[in-house]
Amino acid sequence: MKLRTIALLTTLLGLSLSPLSAQDTKPTAPTAPSAEKADKKGKGAREDWDKLTEAEKAEKLKERKAKMEARLKDLKAKKAAGTLTDKETQQLERLEKQAARGDRPPGERPAGGKRAKKGESKDN
Q1: 3-state secondary structure at position 17
Q2: How far is 27 from 102, CA to CA, in rounded Å?
Q3: Nearest to residue 13, comparing CAs of 2, 23, 24, 21?
Q4: Whether 52 contacts 60, CB under 8 Å
Q5: What is d(CA 72, CA 25) in angstroms, rounded to the nearest whole number?
Q6: Measured between alpha carbons, how far is 15 from 19 in angstroms, rounded to an integer?
Q7: Tens digit of pLDDT for each residue in 111-123?
Q8: How far apart are CA 103 and CA 105, in angstroms?
């Protein structure tokens, strides 16, 4: 009886320690974005944009354009070298489309939004 209890306790102890050793060998996954950062990407980001002055908006747009052009240049160089991954190929296509659109401020986006359901018009 004692031998069975000792074997059971040893097994339980081994099982409880095994996740600890497994964690040590696995690479750490990136942490989830904080709620504040997630809010910045959602509706809060638009509110923050609206609070900026025209000069600040122009500066931010210049920064975004410079960053996009630098990434586009880097991806085109990789494409020429033949070292593009599938993900980078998709990103290159998206950036080329964005660059083709030209300089269009966020306020001058084409009308869109949700499509009207069948049988309904947007005038309702």
Answers
A1: helix
A2: 41
A3: 21
A4: yes
A5: 37
A6: 8
A7: 665 555 666 665 5
A8: 6
Report CA-CA distances (Å) from 51 to 23, 32, 63, 74.
45, 27, 18, 33
pLDDT, one tens digit per residue, over 14-52 is: 777 665 555 555 556 556 556 556 555 666 778 888 888
pTM: 0.48
Crossing angle, helix 54-81 and helix 86-101, to 10 degrees? Answer: 140
- Which tokens belong to 34? 């904080």
Q: Six-digit token pair at 115?
A: 């499509």
CB 93 within 8 A of CB 86: no
Closest CA to 91 of 82, 101, 78, 80: 78
Residues 76 and 93 sit within 8 Å (Cβ to Cβ) = no
Domain locations along the chain: 58-104
